Amino acid sequence: MNILIVHAHPEAQSFCTAMKDLAVDTLQQSGHAVQVSDLYAMNWNPVASAADFQQRSNPDYLVYALEQRHAHGQQALADDIASELDKLLWADLVIFNFPLFWCSVPAILKGWIDRVLVSGVCYGGVRFYDRGGLAGKRALLSFTLGGQAHMFADEAAVHGDWEPMLRPLQRGTLAYAGFSVLPPFPAYHVPYISQQAREEILEQYRDTLQHLDEQAPLNFPSLADFDRHLHPLAKTEQVPA
After folding, report:
1. Angle, alpha carbons 105-172-230 (nearest 5°)
2. Using one digit for the tens of pLDDT, what is the confidence trace for 56-76?
3. At what angle do helices 15-29 and 195-210 cross, to 10 degrees?
4. Enclosing H/E stretch for 24
């Protein structure tokens, strides 16, 4: 299997980086091909702008998604985007490895998503969810955070459950583009726990990575359950995808 790890942590000695390193070692030892995009080390530019296109279909007014489509067709994407898009299309599985910032990803990773999930390639028209451009690929979130597990256990927990917090990323981005999204791997409370506890988390992560094929993806919409206007079909009208 081809695996891309998109890593977004500014500290090379962080626990999050240790998770990335463990993933590389574990996956390679299992016979997988692994590439890493270490966004901070790459000095990745997170800002989507007109500079992302070597030529424009409309030089007077920027509609970013339309210019993505045009530039990809003309092989005129900025070199950094084209390189990352090649990695993305090569990968069977993409692991997004990051510290949780305000219940979301760091800005540098959000910028990778904005610039690399190219319209016309990863999504567009009715090419989304199970008909998205990245259908057949899998995605996994692995992230660190300061909170404890019980703080996110369910709606009665102090922060509520994970699903609404991760929905913009897992559903609105990854599943929308066609990924089968595996259950996330959160590493809780890491700034405050013992070295032994950290090692236990790493072993849990290793076990997860060694059993990826046993992970059932999260459930997201199938377009077979909707009519051509994207209204839900009655159960009796639904057809196979």
Report:
1. 175
2. 999 999 999 999 999 999 999
3. 40
4. helix 15-29
pLDDT > 70? residue 145: yes
Cα 50 to the center of its chain, rounded Å: 24
Computed on alpha carbons and rounded to an integer, the radius of gyration of the chain in Å comes to 19
> CA 200 to CA 191: how far, in whole Å?
14
Residues paired with 6 in a beta bridge? 37, 96
Boundaries of domain holding 10:
2-237
Other beta carbons within 10 angstroms of residue 204's beta carbon come to 12
Residue 155 has pLDDT above 90, yes or no: no
Helices (H), 91-219: 107-116, 162-169, 195-210
Number of structural domains (the chain) is: 1
Measure the CA–CA gap between 35 and 19, rounded to whole angstroms: 15
Measured N-to-C along each axis, helices 107-116 and 79-90 cross at an angle, to the nearest 10 degrees, of 80
| Contacts of 72 by beta carbon, 8 Å cutoff, 6+ apart | 85, 118, 120, 121
The Cα–Cα gap between 159 and 20 comes to 26
CATH number of 69's domain: 3.40.50.360
Distance CA 116, CA 60 (A): 23
Instruction: Say how many Å lie between the first and final Cα of the chain, rounded.
Output: 25
**For residue 170, what is the DSSP state?**
I
Which residues 6+ apart lie within 8 Å of 107 measured at CB?
Answer: 46, 101
Q: Residue 116 in contact with residue 104, Cβ under 8 Å?
A: no
Q: Token digits for 131?
A: 């008909």
